[in-house]
Amino acid sequence: MNIPNAERLVVAADFTPDATGREGVRKKVLVLAEELKGMGVVIKVNSILRACGYGLIRQIHDLGLRVAADLKLVDIKNTLETDGALLAEEKPEFLTVMANVGVDGMSAVRAALPGTEVWAVTVLTTFDDQVSSEIFGCTADEAVLRFARLAKSAGIPGLILSPKEGKIIRADANLNGLRLNSPGIRYPWAEVKKDDQVRFLPAGEAVASGIDRVVVGRPILNAGPNDDPTKPKSRREAAEWILRDIAENLANQEKGMTV
């Protein structure tokens, strides 16, 4: 896939509100965008878009960053068409829609936002096989494959899935061309308390398994000043470490193909 290395990192600006409320969250998103300005990474925003409105996309664009609107749209076709039309004015580069809306629903979103790369969300990375079976009647791997086929039929260019399923999608010739985007990225140096992710890998391993972009939140958001040489000292440095991991694995893949 012809994706600039920096754009392979999508930083999830997923902040929990405190006493400052939604305005405080909005400011935290913009502070993070300022810290990462010039790196070429993508900023992902979700709940705060619903709370503060789509104008936040323009504010992030004004800082020179691309935006993934992680709205996980899910509704009937008619409502999805309206959602797309209302969002089109702000021109987010990327947008998520739940794959379970079916071919017609996903197609409606794609048609309403021709300049936006739409990503179909398959199975959330907090679901293990037991939860997947309770909801979808099959394992997470099987559900991801089903949703990937629906997305392909709808002309959706990308998927959201865990890095564990990258090789499964890449092994299916009928799914060639889909861009794979994975949350559930973890590192030994990133302490994440009460972690809810159950299907995860480091970014480099994810890329090696066929993932095109990684979506990283807490390992970057939690980074800050410390005296441990094995941990990044800032959020920008954490992002740099992840980008280096991605670049090294891509270089190793290229070497393997040219040997």
Account of the 3D structure:
The model has no long low-confidence stretch (mean pLDDT 92). This protein has a single domain, classed as TIM Barrel, CATH 3.20.20. It has helices at residues 21-36, 47-52, 55-62, 77-88, 102-112, 129-136, 140-153, 166-170, 203-208, 218-221, 235-258, and strands at residues 9-12, 42-45, 66-73, 94-98, 117-121, 158-160, 179-182, 213-216. By secondary structure, it is α/β, with parallel strands linked by helices. Helix 9 links the parallel strand 7 and strand 8. An eight-stranded parallel beta barrel has the order 1-2-3-4-5-6-7-8, surrounded by four helices. The protein starts with 8 loop residues before the first strand and ends with a helix. The protein is built from eleven helices and eight strands.
Key descriptive features of the protein:
single chain; TIM Barrel; globular; 259 residues; 8-stranded parallel beta barrel; alpha/beta
